[in-house]
Amino acid sequence: MKIFFDVNVVLDIAIKRTKDPGIFNKLTFALESGKIKGYVTTGLIQTVSYFLLKYLDYNKTREILTIIVPMFHFLDGDEKDILNALRMDSKDIEDAIFYQISLSNQIDAIVTSDKDFLKLSNTYLPVLTPEELVRRLD
Fold first, then answer.
1. Is the dihedral of CA 91, 86, 77, 26 positive or negative?
2. Domains of the chain with CATH codes
């Protein structure tokens, strides 16, 4: 199963920021065991590093990124993805771009904690919460 991970979920995994650590432990195990293939973009990791550096020092940020980056495969977007995203009925351009990149790369689902991103879910590309994804994996 090919899953695109949104920024907030990657941050949750990176800093173990959650009400239910079991959810993120299961996601991490699914990634590491190959049960799911996780996908992100380079820009997404840049955003994660920006937020980590706001709260952690450089060495800790580097240590965390060194652990989480190998868990993921990297996708590239192109002009078509961006233009298609701008045509979507979404107020969040970043989410729309991630959605279009995921569509272009035959991703099976997107996982996010962003309530607005969840509104983009449809039969072509489901957008799931971490809890929904874990239920589908069980």
1. positive
2. 2-137 (3.40.50.1010)
Q: What pLDDT is stored for residue 65 in this prediction?
A: 97
What integer is the mean pLDDT of 12-32?
Answer: 86
Backbone angles phi, psi at 4, to 5 degrees: -90, 130
DSSP 44-98: HHHHHHHHHHHHS-HHHHHHHHHHHGGGEEEE---HHHHHHHHHSS-S-HHHHHH
Phi-psi region of 127 (alpha: psi -120 to 50; beta: other; left: phi over 0): beta
Residue 19 to residue 115: CA distance in whole angstroms? 16
Using only C-alpha atoms, the chain has a radius of gyration, in whole angstroms, of: 14
- Residue type at 55 in one-letter notation: Y
pLDDT band at 57 (very low <50, low <70, confident <90, very high): very high
